[in-house]
Target: glucan endo-1,3-beta-D-glucosidase
Amino acid sequence: MQTYRDESKVDLAHDLDGNTGYHYTTPQDTSDGFQGVHSDGGQYRDLMSDSQAELFDDGYRPPSWNGSKYGLNTYPKQRQRQTKRSKSVIIGLIIAVLILTAIAVVVGVVVGRMNSHKDIDAADRSVVVSDPSVFDKDPNLHQSFYGLAYTPEGSQLPDCGNKLEDVIKDIQVMSQLTTRIRLYGGDCNQTALVLEAINRTKVNMTVWLGNYDVPNDNHAAYTRQRDLLKETLETYGTNHTGGMTVGNEFMLNYVTQQGLTDVDSPEANEGAQLLIQDINDTIDMLKGMNLANLPVGNSDAGSFMNKEVLSDVSYGMCNVHPWFANVSVEDSANWTTTFFLEQDQALADSLSNHPTMYIAETGWPTKSTDAGNADNGISDASEANLQIFLDTFICQANDAGIKYFFFEFKDEPWKDAQFGGVEGWWGLFDSNGTMKNITIPNCQSP
Model:
């Protein structure tokens, strides 16, 4: 921590007029210094104002005068030597004061720095404020995950309470688990905070940006986030950007709202065209920014990937959750891989554009706010079961070359408050950043 101090200033102003002679202009005690020379009327004469001739031509001498030692013509030289010695003393004192002041300043700075280091030691050493790229590594963490799903705390409208220092801490931890993260939206300046944190920490991290599109709002949410994302890209460029995802479960929400069952029906395709309009607008925006090479994709529930939407993007992301499919935790890893390959990857392979496919979300909850959702009918929401899913999915998916974003980095209290059940309890870490009672698999991600 940089500590600022108001250094004390030493006033070095001194009277350097050089008046070192002895003189008396009025009757006074002459016990100190030369005794005055009597003039008429018993008054003392001003020795400094009288000329040398006036002082000695009339025969007056100070009682201490020793004519054998000091001739008349040597007295002025003696006075000059006294004056020079006095000036030398003053100059010496000034130099001494300056030296002492310099020493005091140096000591103050050293002590201040020592105190500053003590402040850092007393604080959370996972973050060094002056250089966020210097932080302690946790030996219990391993870069085993292909990617992580992440939303900075406080990134929901209208509150927007996210903070750069919190995002920096998150990036420092996540960089020890993965080299890839995905975001969901662009509100509350979250994208800029994440990219700024990556720049400051100097970690190897690629981000898939997100625009959380909303059906039936006349593109208002999309446009608001698009403008923020454009400004962020203009500021930070694409060095740490893997793609821009337009829409998250847009088709799931649209089909549900319309009471439809077939995601590729003509009625469902009306919703798909709303989403495609925003996807194409993003593509055009990037072309206008000379960023046409940045991939544009879409994310949705694994069972709601629309063919028209997927045909219009460079990549697709699919949420594949064994918990919501009522699969036992012991079978969840195999089920997740099979579902993704047979349903989503197969669909992409059948399209002429062959979009790259990712698992956008998969994981296991560790808690439910209410007893009714404490299990999925077969397996409990618990840290022990999260450990089983980690042990059976992560390294195996890496070996199989499956691209996935594990859901998720930390618990999200706002989801629990809004939706209840297991919604807020999917994190590897709790909302305070403490790792749950789990062991991170130790294998290298692709």
Notes: Residues 1-84, 105-128 have pLDDT under 50 and may be disordered. The domain at 148-419 is CATH 3.20.20.80 (TIM Barrel). The CA atoms of residues 86 and 241 lie 75 Å apart. The first strand starts at residue 148 and ends at 149.
